[in-house]
Design a protein that fits this description.
By secondary structure, the protein is an alpha/beta fold. The protein is about 45% helix and about 15% strand. The protein has helices at about 10-15, 60-80, 90-100, 110-115, 120-135, 135-145, 150-160, 165-175, 185-190, 205-210, 225-235, 260-265, 275-285, 300-315, 330-345, 360-369, and strands at about 25-30, 35-40, 45-50, 105-110, 195, 215-220, 240-245, 290-295, 320-330, 345-355. The strands form two sheets. The chain has a seven-stranded parallel sheet, sandwiched between helices. A three-stranded antiparallel sheet has the order 1-2-3, covered by helices on one side. The radius of gyration is 24 Å and the shape is globular.
Amino acid sequence: MPSMKFDPEATVEEIAGIGRHTAFDAVVDDKDDDAIQVVCKRADGTEVPLANPARAFYFGDRILYKEEASRYDLGQKQRVLNSDLFSRNEKRFDELKRACQRGFVIPFVGAGMSKSAGCPEWKEYLLNLCPEAGFDEATMRQRLEDHGAYEGVMHDLVTNLGEARFNLDFERDFTLPGDLVGAVLRLPDLFDNCVITTNFDRVLEMAYEKCGKAFVEKTTGRAPTGSINAFYRAIPAGDRHLLKLHGNLNNAAERVLNRGEYDSAYGNDGNIHFDFPLPKLLKRLYTSFSFLFLGCSLSYDRTIQTFAKIAQDLGADSLPHHYAILASPSDAAKKADLEQRLADAHISAIWFPEGEYQHIEAMLELLSV
């Protein structure tokens, strides 16, 4: 708590704001101009009346106030982090927060963050294309949910629809329906620097513009070397650059979407090749900075395979810690598979209960205080 400073001639209304905890629920009854009553609420809702202070000394019982405010903070943190369900969340979160404060973390943003802003979720978008492409939706859903076969499903959809037909509405389908809302608006204040995304939409660009922090440069993972080098230089310089790893909606030349484009970017024989554009780029970043995965399913696609291969080749001791804010699968087998995948890539999960996506924004808010 900051030390108290006040003007002896200040009004009760002015004094009432001095030294107060911004989140802690202090209720002020200032009907009496000479003395005010402060009631602090514990996390369980119990009200604790503080000493009735004189006008010149607002927090007459500052020790009690600090104690109750500290308890409030701890309780709030434990609720947001679901500490009773996920015992490792607090230590991982504290470690992540320290890394963020040192400017050592790059957010890696997936489609889940765009969904909260109003764009379609990637899985549901693909499934909605199934009838038009002549596929059984239930079969495709099983491929996506049980095997994480996003690349294969995407390839089959584009093949059946034809690339021209698919491209016709792709950009239009990911146009935001209205005003931007959701957890993505927390990012500009937390990460006022470089950001990586696998998304094709413009949600991140719009979020940073809305917060008055527009990206000064934007590049793609398959862009010319000069643009990629500019992104590397922007990180220590503190410039706002956006790396759209898999390209933009409207540029098929630099896009990574169907199987052929993945083969050109990652290698075409089932292995990860670090002389290909994206593995080479990701290795340089993944070995130098901590990533925070947000809105990512981290299914076993070629991007997560790249991270796992980096960890396997170099050893976990050679890597910075990486983090992900993730929904915990309710199915025990699926969670075990996901935990193994994360461990292979040296990623520590900060979990929230499946389906309770409001925790993402709450955790980002907690990171900022």
